[in-house]
Design a protein that fits this description.
The complex is a heterodimer of chains A (212) and B (332).
Chain A (H helix, E strand, L loop, with lengths): L1 H12 L6 H17 L11 H15 L16 H23 L30 H11 L1 H6 L1 E2 L2 E5 H8 L6 H8 L3 H23 L5
Antiparallel strand pairs in A: 1-2
Helix pairs in contact in A: 1-2, 3-4, 7-9
Chain B lengths: L9 E4 L2 H16 L4 H23 L14 H6 L4 E3 L5 E8 L4 E3 L10 E7 L5 E8 L6 E3 L6 H12 L9 H19 L4 E2 H4 L2 H4 L22 E7 L10 E9 L5 E9 L11 E6 L4 E6 L7 E7 L4 E8 L2 E8 L1
Parallel strand pairs in B: 3-5
Antiparallel strand pairs in B: 1-6, 2-3, 4-7, 5-6, 8-9, 9-10, 10-11, 11-14, 12-13, 12-15, 15-16
Helix pairs in contact in B: 1-2
Chain lengths: 212, 332
């Protein structure tokens, strides 16, 4: 394994940074190191994923030449030992950082039975509802005379007004609209992306709904 | 470097900061009184984009996250977008799926102006994103994970977009030399018995052969339409396929260093839109080991494999249906 990785490293590093061959090599090395399962797992360390992210970046930047740290030296340690040493330091940072800052709130939640919960189920409920959607619909109604005039060629029935109302959430599926209008999904979607979305976007931005 | 290794995915760790960003974006949808599925869609899309951004940054491929539609709250509200802007090159779409799902959903919202699609599998706790593979173009809302090309193909694709072929297109004499070389190498690669694809397939099927994305914007010196050569052959698997003949179609794209990219596809012929189920397409080493394979399902229009082979490398392509099989040999 080590010998195989070694060969791959030599091959990867003989190509210049940013070259396609270098990218291929790094991609393959990452995959193989991950598959070996020999990297520290850091179980129980809060946000160990952040430590891992930093480690992979460090790997890519310093494997062949020193960029953000010392370059890897094959004669001193195996690549996995080298990576684990860096990862261990980052995990240590994360442990002490957590004690200082108590950033535990962003860890995945556990259910009462000790199973991890899907973050999608944990999305917070709306706090202060804004009637953005209703205002957008009201604007579409108000502008309907203009919006109706912008339509798919030879198909005045497929116009900005009719599509906007149907595609604002809860949106009618593209498949249903395509059947209803007897046109290809791509025709509808292209028209929507080209003519409807930019107009709606301009209105939304002009109202400052998402301003910080 | 030989790229015949089995398809490998890459795991990208998803940090707490990433999840916070996703949660914040999802929250905006909730305050806009969007139904819950919209907020979930935004959450997953955001993580998919961030994961691909981490991956590209690891490989020193520059991105412009903040110029992406997925980073604009109005676009997130108006469409199902998970794009990552690569500046001049265009937008790469990062489609999320959950662990174990066999397909990746690609909504019509993003069929148009993308330079490619990358499938990102998020685990149950959204702490790990697995980059499963890449596909340069889509024409339907569902892409099976088994149809994805390896990440190397993505790197290759981006490289070709950045350098509209390593050949100096400014020097037309040099280009025509290279084109001649391409034709020569293709002739050697295919040997006899191969037809032009137009002669073999009905026109609509040729559409699916656009595996090399041609940028639509006009570059300073336009690259030739394609530096690859595409040929097809009728595959006769005897009585089993008496009513449903298939064609093996190969696009051969030689590269200046002597290696080549090879795209293999099996298409149904005459009168049928779908392949017989359980038809296998395999790539074997010179010595008969199966290196890659793909199998048709009940309603596949075509199946495909892509590989990169070194100069002089030998491989075999085998098509199997039940007891019948046919093998073709190739040398790059």
């Amino acid at each position: 394994m080590d010998e195989h990785l070694d060969r791959l490293i030599v091959e990867t590093c003989c190509h210049p940074p940013g070259s396609l061959e270098r990218q291929w090599g790094l991609n393959r090395l990452i995959g193989q190191i991950q598959k070996s399962g020999k990297l520290l797992r850091g179980d129980g360390v809060p946000d160990r994923e952040d430590a891992l992210q930093q480690t992979w970046l460090y790997f890519c930047r310093n494997l062949c030449e020193a960029t953000t740290g010392k370059a890897y030296d094959r004669t001193r340690a195996s690549v996995i030992t080298w990576l684990n040493a860096y990862l261990e330091r980052r995990l240590q940072d994360s442990r002490s950082h957590t004690i200082a800052k108590r950033k535990l709130t962003v860890e995945p939640s556990l259910s009462s039975t000790g199973e991890y919960l899907d973050p999608l189920e944990q999305l917070p409920a709306p706090t202060q509802p804004l009637p953005v959607l209703e205002e957008i619909c009201a604007w579409v109604e108000q502008e309907r005379h203009i919006l109706r005039r912008i339509h798919v060629r030879d198909r005045p029935d497929i116009n900005c007004y009719s599509l906007m109302l149907r595609r604002l959430p809860p949106e009618t599926p593209w498949e249903d609209l395509a059947t209803e209008f007897s046109v290809a999904i791509a025709t509808l979607s292209n028209f929507y992306q080209r003519e409807c979305r930019p107009r709606l976007k301009a209105f939304i931005l002009s109202q400052g709904y998402f301003d910080p | 470097m030989t790229h015949f290794t089995p398809q490998q995915s890459i795991a990208i760790p998803v940090s707490a900061t990433d999840r916070q960003t996703a949660e914040q974006f999802a929250q905006q949808q909730l305050t806009a009184q969007m139904p819950a599925p919209k907020a979930q869609q935004v959450y997953l899309n955001t993580l998919a984009v961030l994961s691909v951004n981490h991956y590209l940054s690891m490989l020193s491929i520059s991105t412009q996250l903040e110029a992406s539609d997925s980073w604009n709250p109005a676009d997130r509200l108006l469409a199902d977008v998970a794009d990552l802007s690569l500046g001049e090159l265009g937008r790469l779409e990062c489609r999320p799926l959950r662990s174990g799902e066999p397909n990746c959903q690609v909504p019509p919202d993003v069929w148009g102006d993308r330079i490619g699609y990358i499938a990102v599998e998020l685990d149950q706790t959204c702490q790990e994103a697995r980059l499963l593979g890449f596909i340069p173009t889509v024409t339907q809302a569902t892409v099976a994970v088994s149809q994805l090309q390896p990440l190397e193909a993505l790197l290759d694709h981006l490289h070709h977009l950045r350098h509209p072929d390593a050949v100096a297109t400014t020097d037309s004499a040099k280009l025509s030399d290279f084109m001649e070389l391409v034709q020569q190498r293709a002739a050697n690669f295919f040997g006899t018995g191969w037809q032009r694809v137009e002669e073999l397939l009905a026109p609509p099927q040729q559409m699916t052969l656009s595996f090399r994305h041609q940028p639509e914007r006009s570059s300073i010196s336009p690259p030739p339409a394609s530096l690859g050569v595409c040929r097809g052959k009728l595959i006769d698997l005897g009585i089993q396929l008496a009513e449903q003949a298939v064609a093996l179609v190969i696009e051969f794209v030689p590269r200046p260093d002597g290696s080549a990219r090879v795209l293999l596809q099996i298409h149904p012929l005459a009168g049928s839109n779908v392949l017989p189920p359980d038809l296998q397409l395999q790539v074997l080493s010179e010595f008969g080991a199966v290196l890659r394979q793909v199998q048709s399902r009940t309603v596949d229009n075509y199946i495909q494999l892509e590989l990169v082979a070194e100069a002089g490398e030998r491989f075999n392509v085998r098509v199997v249906l039940g007891q019948a099989e046919i093998t073709e040999q190739f040398v790059v």
